[in-house]
Design a protein that fits this description.
The complex is a heterodimer.
Chain A lengths: L5 H9 L4 H5 L9 H4 L8 E5 L5 E5 L14 H6 L6 E6 L8 H10 L9 E5 L8 E5 L8 H5 L5 E3 L5 E3 L9 H5 L6 E2 L8 H5 L15 E2 L5 H5 L5 H5 L5 E5 L4 E3 L4 E3 H7 L15 E4 L11 H7 L1
Parallel strand pairs in A: 3-13
Antiparallel strand pairs in A: 1-2, 3-10, 4-5, 6-7, 8-9, 10-11, 11-12
Chain B lengths: L2 H11 L6 H27 L14 H13 L1 H11 L9 H22 L8 H4 L6 H21 L3 H8 L2 H4 L1 H11 L6 H34 L11 H27 L8 H32 L2 H11 L4 H19 L7 H27 L20 H24 L5 H13 L1
Helix pairs in contact in B: 1-18, 2-17, 3-5, 3-12, 3-16, 4-5, 4-11, 5-7, 5-17, 7-11, 8-10, 11-12, 12-13, 12-16, 13-15, 14-15, 15-16
The chains are: A alpha+beta, B mainly alpha.
């Protein structure tokens, strides 16, 4: 988990002040006596914020970097995070096609150049209806057509709602791509162009890294980030707060700076899902593009005309 | 029947060595196969990147070729089983032709599906992690079953012929003799043996019909179980099966003509056979046309938004030339030829057979590809070459190689075994004389 986690590690390093809280991520506390025994106090004290929100002082010598996050096993990754049911809300009134979500997603998942897991569609239903931008992730359907057709259980539905892919098992038949009505799946037609260190990693269903030649890839709802208590990359990358992520069981979604009660948000803003008539039951909800923050400007189409 | 007449039949029908034409034919096919193998080597090395397939059109001519092979293989069940069980005797000389077409086509159907896989080396996962709810697994099960039933239906009627051939030791040469003895030395023409094989053939003939329907229905479900416009159709199973019987019968017409002229079998594959087979093809073409009308006219009447782009693309757009070519060559022109008595003479029927088979190949292409170019959400945020599909030379070479391979199997089979069943022909001639 090296290159993939560079920025994660930067983030972690920056938040070392929360060291006490982070220590909880490791099974072993850094303060257990046998470990402390070899370390001599330096006398230099550092102020830290504890999990309880108290400010505490710790000797600098006792601080140590957070160990590698233990990766979940394939079996655990197939079950999902207990007690959770993830959902995403995409507010179309806030999207101006900046595509920061897309670039963050591509970067963090080391997607082959040119391919995208998140697509931002210029939509216009009919001649006289209003155009708008529609970012699409995987819909993580509760009745996933892709999972139904997979012959080898390489793509699977978890209890927490995520639909993931085991690239070590995928045979590359592409039936799931034909079955998905949202065109969300991409195929690694050639050896994905990624850094050597990334390619050397062993595949993990929760990070979807590294992508492998001859297998299918797609948006995974970033369960690795969620396990750490962080938000999916697209959510945190969007400067306009288009993406809200959360847990239906907790009935709350957040884009990082704003948090809403999920049911209220959907009710107040008339949230809907894509292609409801197909019966796929997506986990991604959309808020209609009303009272928009930005006018619709399609520079891509203008460029094409030029 | 007199011994001399029997000997004449045997002499006429024993497999013959390749002549000059035959050698050129085999070398040509081998060359195409070699090119296909080379192209597949490149595909294994570089990945499916070497094909014209991309994220939107993720299935192309490999899959249409697969559908074509499965389709043409259905004729084995039609000629051997359906006609046999309905007590139709004129088709006896054609059973082996139909059955070897079935076996070689279904073999190459399985091979081409492996060629289409992104990770063919993980094929074993289908058995290790197979999930019964996936139509692919259904296909694996029924195709394997169909292959073995077809193989047995080829083998059992061959046993009495093997005994006849084993007697021609010098003519056979060393290794062929060994092969015949390996396959059939236990056969002694005993009445009990006939009783057992007759019973076995009857059971197989009955069981192959549902299995044949299953292989092509399940193949149609690979498409019909998705939501996509052009595939989301309850008509698909029947549409596929009628088309399959049509292309298979067209294939039999071609094979009949080639074997008849090449091996001088005019006495055994008679004008009457072409006449009757021609009528069968007309019937099947009309049936397939009927399902085509259902498949296209009904959605075209409604022109639902999701279907509209797809249908217009076929009728008047990008795919219109191929679409109308396929409709006319696979159905309308052959019907026009074969409806007339003159059109059912060998040469004309042969031409009609070629039209049927060529048109049907393109028809399979149209079933697979245009649908994928019309997804529900517009094609967006992908490289420009993802929005079109044209097969690369590697795909053509591999698809061509698989077709050549199927022809090679049939060719070698006809070289090694009598393509017209000798024993059954003798029996039929006898019973005709007794009448």
């Amino acid at each position: 988990m090296k290159t993939n986690d560079n920025s994660r590690r930067e983030f972690l390093a920056a938040s070392l002040l929360a060291g006490a809280a982070l220590a909880g991520c490791s099974n072993k506390s850094p303060f257990t006596p046998e470990e402390v025994a070899d370390i001599k106090p330096s006398g230099e004290m550092v102020k830290l914020l504890s999990v309880d929100g108290e400010i505490i002082e710790v000797d600098k010598a006792f601080l140590k970097p957070v160990p590698e996050m233990p990766t979940v096993t394939n079996d655990e990754a197939r079950i999902g995070i207990p007690g959770k049911k993830f959902a995403m809300v995409i507010d179309l009134s806030r999207c101006k096609n900046l595509k920061k979500c897309q670039s963050a997603c591509n970067h963090m998942h080391h997607i082959h150049p040119g391919q995208n897991w998140i697509k931002v569609y210029p939509m216009q239903e009919a001649d006289h209806t209003a155009p708008y931008w529609q970012p699409t992730t995987c819909m993580h359907c509760d009745e996933p057509p892709c999972v139904k057709v997979c012959p080898v259980d390489a793509t699977f539905k978890r209890k927490d709602g995520a639909v993931l892919i085991d690239s070590d098992r995928c045979v590359g038949c592409r039936f799931c791509m034909a079955a998905c009505p949202y065109s969300t799946r991409v195929f690694n037609w050639e050896e994905p162009k990624v850094e050597k260190e990334v390619a050397a990693l062993s595949y993990n269903c929760e990070t979807s890294v590294p992508q492998k030649k001859g297998t299918v890839g797609k948006c995974d709802f970033c369960p690795d980030m969620v396990r750490q208590g962080s938000l999916p990359h697209c959510v945190s990358a969007c400067p306009n707060g288009v993406f809200f992520f959360g847990d239906i069981l907790e009935d709350s979604v957040t884009n990082g700076s704003e948090t809403f009660r999920f049911s209220d948000l959907i009710k107040d803003k008339a949230g809907y899902r894509l292609m409801e008539d197909l019966g796929t039951k997506p986990s991604v909800y959309y808020l209609p593009p009303v009272n928009r923050n930005f006018p619709f400007e399609n520079h891509e189409a203008e460029e094409k005309k030029d | 029947m007199e011994k001399s007449a029997e000997n004449k039949i045997i002499q006429d029908l024993l497999p013959q060595e390749f002549g000059k034409q035959g050698k050129i034919w085999v070398i040509g096919l081998l060359a195409i196969c070699a090119l296909g193998a080379f192209a597949y080597g490149r595909q294994l090395y570089y990945g499916l990147e070497v094909t014209g397939l991309r994220d939107y059109v993720s299935w192309g001519i490999y899959i249409s070729n697969f559908v074509f092979f499965v389709a043409i293989s259905l004729v084995g069940s039609l000629i051997t089983a359906v006609l046999r069980l309905t007590n139709v005797h004129w088709s006896t000389p054609l059973t082996r032709i139909a059955e070897i077409i079935a076996v070689s086509a279904i073999t190459f159907a399985s091979l081409i599906i492996i060629v289409d896989m992104g990770r063919p080396e993980r094929f074993y996962n289908l058995f290790l992690h197979g999930r019964l709810q996936s139509p692919i697994i259904w296909d694996v099960i029924v195709i394997t079953t169909y292959f073995f039933i077809s193989l047995l239906l080829l083998y059992f009627p061959l046993l009495p012929d093997l005994k006849i051939m084993i007697a021609f030791k010098e003519r056979n040469g060393k290794w062929l003799q060994k092969l015949y003895e390996f396959l059939g030395s236990f056969w002694k023409n005993k009445p009990e043996q006939f009783k057992i094989t007759d019973k076995a053939i009857n059971i197989l003939s009955i069981s192959i019909i549902p299995v044949a329907f299953a292989i092509h229905t399940v193949t149609s479900w690979l498409f019909a179980t998705t939501y996509r416009p052009g595939w989301d159709s309850t008509n698909f199973g029947a549409y596929f099966i009628s088309g399959a019987f049509l292309v298979g019968s067209g294939g039999v017409l071609i094979a009949m003509y080639i074997f008849r002229t090449h091996y001088k079998l005019e006495k055994y594959i008679t004008n009457d056979h072409f006449d009757r087979m021609g009528k069968v093809v007309v019937l099947l073409a009309l049936l397939y046309l009927y399902f085509n009308v259902n498949e296209f006219l009904v959605p075209a009447f409604k022109m639902k938004k999701s279907e509209e782009e797809h249908l217009l693309g076929l009728f008047t757009g990008e795919f219109a030339p191929v679409f109308w070519f396929a409709i006319f060559t696979a159905m309308i022109i052959p019907i026009g030829i074969l409806l007339f008595k003159k059109g059912r003479r060998p040469k004309a029927a042969f031409v009609a057979g070629i039209l049927v088979v060529v048109g049907s190949w393109f028809k399979r292409y149209l079933i697979v590809t245009p649908t994928l170019l019309h997804p529900f959400l517009p094609m967006h945020d992908v490289p420009a070459n993802y929005k079109h599909y044209f097969p690369s030379w590697e795909e053509w070479a591999i698809a061509g190689g698989s077709l050549a391979g199927a022809l090679l199997v049939i060719t070698f089979f006809a070289r090694i075994f009598p393509i017209i069943p000798i024993h059954e022909t003798i029996i039929e001639t006898e019973s005709n004389e007794n009448k």
